Amino acid sequence: MLNPLRERLNAGKISAGVLASMPSVNIAQALANSGFDWLFIDMEHGAIDIASCHHMITATSGTECAPIVRVMEPSISYTKPVLDSGAMGIVFPMITSKEAALAAVNAVRYPPEGERGWGPFYAPMRWGNGDALDYYKASKDVVIIALIEHIESVENIQEILTVEGIDVFFIAPMDLAASMGHVGNRDHPDVVGAIQRAEQSIKGASKVLGGLCLSASEGNEKIASGYQVLLMGFDLLLLDVGARSMLEGLKR
User: Fold this and answer.
1) Nearest by Cα to 50 from 18, 20, 17, 85
2) Which of 14, 125, 136, 196 has its CA at a distance of 20 to 30 angstroms from the CA of residue 81?
3) DSSP structure string for the chain
Protein backbone atom coordinates (compact mmCIF):
# COMPACT_ATOMS: atom_id res chain seq x y z
CA MET A 1 0.00 0.00 0.00
CA LEU A 2 1.54 3.26 -1.14
CA ASN A 3 0.80 6.95 -0.72
CA PRO A 4 2.33 8.68 -3.78
CA LEU A 5 2.47 12.06 -2.04
CA ARG A 6 4.34 10.54 0.91
CA GLU A 7 6.77 8.95 -1.52
CA ARG A 8 7.41 12.29 -3.22
CA LEU A 9 7.93 14.03 0.13
CA ASN A 10 10.38 11.35 1.28
CA ALA A 11 12.29 11.61 -1.99
CA GLY A 12 12.52 15.40 -1.76
CA LYS A 13 10.56 15.84 -5.00
CA ILE A 14 8.37 18.81 -5.86
CA SER A 15 4.63 18.10 -5.59
CA ALA A 16 2.12 20.16 -7.57
CA GLY A 17 -1.53 20.11 -6.56
CA VAL A 18 -4.88 21.58 -7.54
CA LEU A 19 -7.95 22.36 -5.44
CA ALA A 20 -11.41 20.94 -6.12
CA SER A 21 -14.27 22.93 -4.60
CA MET A 22 -17.10 21.37 -6.60
CA PRO A 23 -18.79 18.15 -5.44
CA SER A 24 -18.07 16.46 -8.75
CA VAL A 25 -16.68 13.01 -9.50
CA ASN A 26 -16.05 14.14 -13.08
CA ILE A 27 -13.97 17.13 -11.97
CA ALA A 28 -11.98 14.95 -9.57
CA GLN A 29 -11.36 12.30 -12.19
CA ALA A 30 -10.31 14.83 -14.84
CA LEU A 31 -7.94 16.72 -12.53
CA ALA A 32 -6.43 13.52 -11.11
CA ASN A 33 -5.64 12.36 -14.64
CA SER A 34 -4.18 15.69 -15.77
CA GLY A 35 -0.76 15.26 -14.20
CA PHE A 36 -1.14 16.85 -10.76
CA ASP A 37 0.54 15.04 -7.89
CA TRP A 38 -2.22 15.71 -5.36
CA LEU A 39 -5.87 16.70 -5.42
CA PHE A 40 -6.92 19.13 -2.68
CA ILE A 41 -10.58 18.24 -1.95
CA ASP A 42 -12.02 21.20 -0.07
CA MET A 43 -14.63 20.44 2.59
CA GLU A 44 -14.00 23.76 4.36
CA HIS A 45 -15.15 26.22 1.71
CA GLY A 46 -16.50 23.95 -1.03
CA ALA A 47 -20.02 22.48 -1.14
CA ILE A 48 -18.66 18.97 -0.63
CA ASP A 49 -20.31 16.58 1.83
CA ILE A 50 -18.89 13.27 3.02
CA ALA A 51 -20.66 11.21 0.32
CA SER A 52 -19.30 13.46 -2.43
CA CYS A 53 -15.88 13.42 -0.80
CA HIS A 54 -15.86 9.61 -0.77
CA HIS A 55 -16.80 9.52 -4.46
CA MET A 56 -14.12 12.08 -5.37
CA ILE A 57 -11.45 10.15 -3.45
CA THR A 58 -12.46 7.00 -5.32
CA ALA A 59 -12.32 8.87 -8.63
CA THR A 60 -8.55 9.35 -8.19
CA SER A 61 -8.00 5.57 -8.26
CA GLY A 62 -5.68 4.34 -10.98
CA THR A 63 -3.65 7.55 -10.95
CA GLU A 64 -0.54 8.81 -9.16
CA CYS A 65 -2.60 11.72 -7.80
CA ALA A 66 -3.06 11.50 -4.02
CA PRO A 67 -6.48 12.61 -2.67
CA ILE A 68 -5.90 15.11 0.16
CA VAL A 69 -8.90 16.59 2.01
CA ARG A 70 -9.25 19.86 3.88
CA VAL A 71 -11.54 19.52 6.87
CA MET A 72 -13.13 22.24 8.98
CA GLU A 73 -10.92 21.93 12.07
CA PRO A 74 -8.60 19.50 13.86
CA SER A 75 -11.35 17.25 15.18
CA ILE A 76 -11.76 13.48 15.01
CA SER A 77 -15.42 13.94 14.11
CA TYR A 78 -14.28 15.54 10.83
CA THR A 79 -11.26 13.39 10.05
CA LYS A 80 -12.58 9.88 10.77
CA PRO A 81 -15.10 9.56 7.90
CA VAL A 82 -12.70 11.26 5.48
CA LEU A 83 -9.81 8.97 6.33
CA ASP A 84 -12.04 5.91 6.29
CA SER A 85 -13.06 6.92 2.76
CA GLY A 86 -9.44 6.54 1.69
CA ALA A 87 -7.97 10.05 1.92
CA MET A 88 -4.19 9.98 1.78
CA GLY A 89 -3.76 13.24 3.64
CA ILE A 90 -5.57 15.88 5.65
CA VAL A 91 -5.22 19.65 5.39
CA PHE A 92 -5.96 21.52 8.61
CA PRO A 93 -6.89 25.22 8.44
CA MET A 94 -5.94 27.93 10.91
CA ILE A 95 -3.21 26.14 12.83
CA THR A 96 -2.38 29.08 15.06
CA SER A 97 -0.87 27.34 18.10
CA LYS A 98 1.05 24.32 19.30
CA GLU A 99 -2.17 22.99 20.83
CA ALA A 100 -3.96 23.13 17.47
CA ALA A 101 -1.06 21.32 15.79
CA LEU A 102 -1.15 18.60 18.43
CA ALA A 103 -4.91 18.24 17.93
CA ALA A 104 -4.34 17.81 14.18
CA VAL A 105 -1.93 14.93 14.70
CA ASN A 106 -4.23 13.41 17.30
CA ALA A 107 -7.16 13.47 14.87
CA VAL A 108 -5.27 11.55 12.17
CA ARG A 109 -3.20 8.88 13.92
CA TYR A 110 -4.38 5.65 15.49
CA PRO A 111 -3.50 5.00 19.15
CA PRO A 112 -1.07 5.31 20.78
CA GLU A 113 0.03 8.33 18.67
CA GLY A 114 -3.54 9.63 18.33
CA GLU A 115 -7.18 8.86 18.96
CA ARG A 116 -8.53 7.85 15.56
CA GLY A 117 -11.23 5.21 15.90
CA TRP A 118 -11.06 1.85 14.16
CA GLY A 119 -13.23 1.28 11.09
CA PRO A 120 -11.25 1.39 7.83
CA PHE A 121 -13.72 -0.59 5.72
CA TYR A 122 -13.28 1.38 2.46
CA ALA A 123 -9.85 2.99 2.84
CA PRO A 124 -7.90 -0.21 1.99
CA MET A 125 -9.61 -0.34 -1.42
CA ARG A 126 -8.27 3.10 -2.38
CA TRP A 127 -4.86 2.41 -0.87
CA GLY A 128 -4.23 -0.82 -2.76
CA ASN A 129 -6.86 -3.48 -2.13
CA GLY A 130 -5.23 -4.82 1.02
CA ASP A 131 -7.11 -5.71 4.15
CA ALA A 132 -7.73 -3.59 7.24
CA LEU A 133 -4.51 -4.66 8.95
CA ASP A 134 -2.46 -3.82 5.85
CA TYR A 135 -4.09 -0.40 5.88
CA TYR A 136 -3.36 0.04 9.60
CA LYS A 137 0.34 -0.45 8.90
CA ALA A 138 0.23 1.94 5.93
CA SER A 139 -1.84 4.61 7.68
CA LYS A 140 1.30 6.11 9.21
CA ASP A 141 1.89 7.47 5.72
CA VAL A 142 -1.22 9.69 5.80
CA VAL A 143 0.18 13.18 5.13
CA ILE A 144 -0.69 15.96 7.59
CA ILE A 145 -0.61 19.51 6.23
CA ALA A 146 -0.90 22.50 8.57
CA LEU A 147 -2.03 25.80 7.07
CA ILE A 148 -0.10 28.80 8.30
CA GLU A 149 -2.74 31.36 7.39
CA HIS A 150 -3.12 33.76 10.30
CA ILE A 151 -0.77 36.30 11.83
CA GLU A 152 -1.03 34.32 15.09
CA SER A 153 0.37 31.33 13.20
CA VAL A 154 3.40 33.40 12.24
CA GLU A 155 3.82 34.75 15.76
CA ASN A 156 3.65 31.21 17.20
CA ILE A 157 5.50 29.46 14.39
CA GLN A 158 8.45 28.32 16.50
CA GLU A 159 6.19 26.47 18.95
CA ILE A 160 4.08 25.01 16.13
CA LEU A 161 7.21 23.67 14.45
CA THR A 162 8.09 21.61 17.53
CA VAL A 163 5.08 19.33 17.05
CA GLU A 164 6.10 15.94 15.68
CA GLY A 165 3.88 14.50 12.98
CA ILE A 166 3.12 17.57 10.87
CA ASP A 167 4.51 16.81 7.41
CA VAL A 168 3.99 20.07 5.54
CA PHE A 169 3.73 23.65 6.77
CA PHE A 170 1.77 25.44 4.07
CA ILE A 171 1.70 29.25 4.00
CA ALA A 172 -1.71 30.46 2.78
CA PRO A 173 -1.30 34.14 1.86
CA MET A 174 -4.90 35.24 1.35
CA ASP A 175 -6.18 34.39 4.83
CA LEU A 176 -2.92 35.66 6.28
CA ALA A 177 -3.45 38.98 4.53
CA ALA A 178 -7.03 39.17 5.80
CA SER A 179 -5.92 38.49 9.38
CA MET A 180 -3.58 41.47 9.06
CA GLY A 181 -6.26 43.82 7.75
CA HIS A 182 -5.19 43.60 4.11
CA VAL A 183 -8.04 41.62 2.55
CA GLY A 184 -7.24 40.53 -1.01
CA ASN A 185 -3.74 42.00 -0.96
CA ARG A 186 -1.18 39.26 -0.47
CA ASP A 187 1.49 41.58 -1.89
CA HIS A 188 1.18 44.20 0.85
CA PRO A 189 4.63 44.79 2.38
CA ASP A 190 3.47 43.75 5.84
CA VAL A 191 2.05 40.49 4.48
CA VAL A 192 5.17 39.81 2.45
CA GLY A 193 7.25 40.39 5.57
CA ALA A 194 5.13 37.96 7.60
CA ILE A 195 5.43 35.34 4.87
CA GLN A 196 9.19 35.76 4.82
CA ARG A 197 9.38 35.30 8.59
CA ALA A 198 7.35 32.10 8.35
CA GLU A 199 9.46 30.84 5.44
CA GLN A 200 12.68 31.42 7.31
CA SER A 201 11.42 29.61 10.41
CA ILE A 202 10.08 26.62 8.48
CA LYS A 203 13.22 26.21 6.40
CA GLY A 204 15.38 26.84 9.44
CA ALA A 205 13.70 23.92 11.18
CA SER A 206 14.29 21.73 8.08
CA LYS A 207 10.56 21.21 7.62
CA VAL A 208 8.70 20.87 4.31
CA LEU A 209 7.45 24.22 3.05
CA GLY A 210 4.28 24.58 0.97
CA GLY A 211 2.59 27.52 -0.68
CA LEU A 212 0.23 28.92 -3.28
CA CYS A 213 1.26 29.73 -6.86
CA LEU A 214 -1.00 30.54 -9.77
CA SER A 215 1.41 29.94 -12.64
CA ALA A 216 4.40 27.81 -13.55
CA SER A 217 6.67 30.86 -13.39
CA GLU A 218 5.51 31.71 -9.86
CA GLY A 219 5.90 28.05 -8.96
CA ASN A 220 9.48 28.00 -10.22
CA GLU A 221 10.24 31.06 -8.12
CA LYS A 222 8.89 29.29 -5.05
CA ILE A 223 10.83 26.14 -5.82
CA ALA A 224 14.00 28.21 -6.10
CA SER A 225 13.30 29.71 -2.66
CA GLY A 226 12.81 26.33 -0.99
CA TYR A 227 9.18 25.36 -1.48
CA GLN A 228 8.49 21.66 -2.05
CA VAL A 229 4.67 21.47 -2.05
CA LEU A 230 2.72 23.76 -4.39
CA LEU A 231 -0.98 24.46 -4.85
CA MET A 232 -1.45 25.75 -8.38
CA GLY A 233 -5.03 26.91 -8.50
CA PHE A 234 -8.55 25.53 -8.26
CA ASP A 235 -11.30 24.11 -10.42
CA LEU A 236 -13.42 27.27 -10.71
CA LEU A 237 -10.38 29.34 -11.71
CA LEU A 238 -9.39 26.83 -14.37
CA LEU A 239 -12.91 26.86 -15.80
CA ASP A 240 -13.08 30.65 -15.74
CA VAL A 241 -9.68 31.14 -17.39
CA GLY A 242 -10.43 28.49 -20.00
CA ALA A 243 -13.85 29.91 -20.82
CA ARG A 244 -12.62 33.48 -21.05
CA SER A 245 -9.69 32.49 -23.27
CA MET A 246 -12.11 30.88 -25.73
CA LEU A 247 -14.14 34.09 -25.92
CA GLU A 248 -11.15 36.42 -26.11
CA GLY A 249 -11.08 38.22 -29.42
CA LEU A 250 -14.40 36.82 -30.57
CA LYS A 251 -16.37 39.34 -32.65
CA ARG A 252 -20.00 39.23 -31.54
Assistant:
1) 85
2) 14
3) ---HHHHHHHHT--EEEEEE-S--HHHHHHHHTTT-SEEEEESSSSS--HHHHHHHHHHTTTSSPEEEEE-SSS-HHHHHHHHHTT-SEEEES---SHHHHHHHHHTTSPTTT--PPS--SSHHHHHTS--HHHHHHHGGG-EEEEEE-SHHHHHTHHHHTT-TT--EEEE-HHHHHHHTT-TT-TTSHHHHHHHHHHHHHHHHTT-EEEEE-SSHHHHHHHHHTT--EEEEEEHHHHHHHHHHHHHTT---
Which pLDDT tens digit goes with each residue over 8-50? Answer: 999 999 999 999 999 999 999 999 999 999 999 999 998 999 9
Establish whether 45 is a catalytic residue: yes
Share of the chain above pLDDT 70, in %: 100
d(CA 172, CA 134): 34
Whether the predicted pLDDT of 1 surpasses 80:
no
